[in-house]
Amino acid sequence: AQSVTQLGSHVSVSEGALVLLRCNYSSSVxxxxxxxxxxxxxxxxxxxxxxxxxxxxxxxxxxxxEFKKSETSFHLTKPSAHMSDAAEYFCAVTVGSGNTGKLIxxxxxxxxxxx
Amino acid sequence: xxxxxxxxxFRVLKTGQSMTLLCAQDMNHEYMYWYRQDxxxxxxxxxxxxxxxxxxxxxxxxxxxxxxLKKQNFLLGLESAAPSQTSxxxxxxxxxxxxxxxxxxxxGTRLTVL
Lengths: 115, 114
Prior knowledge:
The complex is a heterodimer.
Chain A: E1 3-7, E2 10-14, E3 19-26, E4 32-38, E5 44-50, E6 56-58, E7 64-68, E8 73-78, E9 87-94, E10 104-105, E11 109-114
Parallel strand pairs in A: 2-11
Antiparallel strand pairs in A: 1-3, 3-8, 4-5, 4-9, 6-7, 7-8, 9-10, 9-11
Chain B: E1 4-7, E2 10-13, E3 19-25, E4 31-38, E5 42-51, E6 54-57, E7 65-67, E8 73-78, E9 87-94, E10 104-105, E11 109-113
Parallel strand pairs in B: 2-11
Antiparallel strand pairs in B: 1-3, 3-8, 4-5, 4-9, 5-6, 7-8, 9-10, 9-11
């Protein structure tokens, strides 16, 4: 079975600092990996996803993530945090297609950006 | 193009009461999903539908029922609400169920059961 673990339920950075949100997955087959962002009182919005090919994936708002199979990780980074990045971030995994294509979410990481 | 909408946005119920949450999408998507979000637990899949007239159980289906009578609508019902069902409920839809098919989420319904 697939699972996702997000290390750190709360991360605080200063504006302009590097953002690093950690995600590790467990899967017995090649995974497909996603990062979603949830702004206050809103639904989830897709930031980026890894399916196949290049392991460094670029998303919206300057975020990127790197799939590292050897470390079973898919950490999310952004070189310089902006106040508008304050939100909750979810890592998710799915495998294959058809009936097994459902998303499994991590528990979420709240990003706080301090001025 | 409104995307995915959810009705109502907020609701307070007493234990034992029933209610129905409505999800509507205008993207002609085949697949629709209901999730619940609880602090520290991320989103968990309650039920999903792979097309009009079909439904299937997700990770946490107990205490919920769903119906997909029209392609654009996916209803989530609570027949006898319990405090453990206090949560934020999200509906999502996608064109397909594979990894290339992005799930689009609604704004959520915050439900409190007293």
